[in-house]
Amino acid sequence: MYLPKREQALLVGIEFASEPVPLSLSLSELKGLAETAGAEVVGSLTQKKDRPDQKYFIGSGKVEELKALAAAQNADLIIFDHELSPSNERNLEEALGVKVIDRTELILDIFAQHAHSREGKLQVELAQATFNLTHLTGHGASMSRLGGGIATRGPGETKLEYDRRRLRSRISELKKELEKVRAHRSRKREQRRSSRIPTAAIVGYTNSGKSTLLNALTQAGVLVQDKLFATLDPTTRRLYLPSGKTILLTDTVGFIQKLPHHLVAAFQATLEEVTEADLLIHVVDAANPFHEQQISSVYQVLEELKSITKPLITVFNKTDRLEKPLSKKLLGKYKPAVAVSALKLENLNQLLTTIDAVDNLTSK
Ligand SMILES: Nc1nc2c(ncn2[C@@H]2O[C@H](COP(=O)(O)OP(=O)(O)OP(=O)(O)O)[C@@H](O)[C@H]2O)c(=O)[nH]1
Ligand SMILES: [Mg+2]
Hints:
Layout: E1 8-16, H1 23-36, E2 40-49, H2 60-73, E3 77-80, H3 86-96, E4 99-102, H4 103-114, H5 118-134, H6 139-145, H7 164-194, E5 199-204, H8 210-218, E6 235-240, E7 246-251, H9 261-266, H10 268-275, E8 279-285, H11 291-304, E9 312-317, H12 328-333, E10 337-339, H13 348-356
Parallel strand pairs: 1-2, 1-3, 3-4, 5-7, 5-8, 8-9, 9-10
Antiparallel strand pairs: 6-7
The structure holds guanosine-5'-triphosphate and magnesium ion.
Residues 210-211, 230-231 line the site of magnesium ion.
C-alpha cells in the first residue's frame, strides 16, 4: 500500500498580551489540528510580543531561530497559530525556504478531507476559493515551488485554483450551486415545520462529544472520532421524550476559537440548522481544562449567527473522565445544565427530562 510521507510540522505562536485565550491552549489545539490533517508535529516556537511584526509577523531574530530549528528537525511545513497576511506568508517562505501556512488554511485542509456530501464539498470549496482569492499574492507564486500536501488539497478530487479570473468565476458558480442547496434545505425544513415537530440542534466546541450524544440518544450511527471536525454534515434523527413528546435532533459542525468569519459564512447552509432550531443543546467537554474558554468561543459564534437568545441547555459531557464531580456553582452558572457521559450513557435520563421541561417545545 502506498502511504504518503507525513509532513513534519513546526508550530509557531505569539503570546499577545491582549489575547483572552492562553497560548498553551491555542498551541495544543493547533497540534491536534495538525495531526488531524496528517502532519507529524516535530517542535514549536513561541514569542511574547505586543503586536505582530510588519514583515514576518514574528521578529526577525525569531525568523533566524525558526530557520535553524526547521533545519535541525527536518521540517517541511511551518504552521502559524494566527492569521497571516499574504505578504507575511510570502516573506516567511522566502526567508525560510519551507512552506508556511496559518491556522485558517490548516482548518480548511481538514474540512476538505472531511467533506463527504455534495453540500459539504461545495461549502468547503467556496471557503477555500474565497481564501485563495484574497491570498493570491502569497501562495499563488510560491505554492508550485513548495509542492503539495496540507493546504493544497481540495474536497474530493477538486484541484485548488490559483488564477484570479478562474477563481472569481468558480466562486460565483459555487454560490449559485449553494443557493440551490439552501433552497432545497429550506423546503425540507418547511416540510418539518408543517409536520409541527419541534427541532433541537446539538452545538458545541469541536471534539466535545456532539455526535456521541446524538448516537447515544437516537442510535443514529454517526461517525465518532477523536479528531477535530470529524462531523461536517448535519444529521437529523427523531428523539422520543419521557412525556411522550417527539422532537427532531440535529448534530452539527463543531466550533473552534479564532474561526474566521468567512468560514462561518461559507457554512451558512449547514449553520441554518442552528439558526432555525427551537432549542440548542450545547455540549461541553467537561474534562477539558479550558472548557470555560471553549464555552465563550461557542457563544461568540452563536452571537454571530444571531442565535444566542434561543433556549439553550448546557450539557457537560465526559464526566467519566473527571476526578471529582462538577461544582454546583458551575452547573448553576450555566443553568439549565446537566452533567452526563454520552460515552458511558450516564445521566442521559436527566437530560431528556430537562429537554422535556423546556417551554414552547410542544408541537406547534
Ligand atoms: N471519555 C469520554 N469520551 C467521550 C465522551 N463523549 C465523547 N467522547 C470521545 O470524544 C471524542 C470526540 O467525540 P465526537 O462525538 O466525535 O465529538 P464531536 O463533538 O462530534 O466532534 P466533531 O464532530 O469533530 O466536532 C471521541 O473520541 C469520543 O469517543 C464521554 O462521555 N466520555
Ligand atoms: Mg461530530
